[in-house]
Amino acid sequence: MSSGISEQVQRFLGQHITSIEQLEVLLLLRRTEEREWNAAAVAREIGSSMMSMHDRLAGLASRGLLVAREDSEDILYRYAPTTDETRRTVDDLAKAYKERRLSIINLIYAKPPPSDIQSFSEAFRITKKGGEG
């Protein structure tokens, strides 16, 4: 724990957080736990693009950090970790980000790129099928 960040928070960052923007979205929804947000409102609050917010919100929901609900015209998200342990870890992360912002930023960017990039590149790999080619 040389960075002053608990191993649990470091592990959480490694498993769930791929960018500062994603962290900012998570912490925004955590601070406003009772409120439901759509991508446009989060984009305005964070100062980012709506397309990026759709991706960030969907990613956080798929990791069990947010719940999503379809409204008549939109998808609404609310902070709702699936376990109390996750909730405590995100609370610790929020505190660490407030007190040791640079350490958290360094941890996020020091890790290898997410496997999604490898999966994306493999989707375009050309392979021979049944003797063709």
Automatic annotation (TrEMBL):
<dbReference type="InterPro" id="IPR036390">
    <property type="entry name" value="WH_DNA-bd_sf"/>
</dbReference>
<protein>
    <recommendedName>
        <fullName>HTH marR-type domain-containing protein</fullName>
    </recommendedName>
</protein>
<dbReference type="InterPro" id="IPR036388">
    <property type="entry name" value="WH-like_DNA-bd_sf"/>
</dbReference>
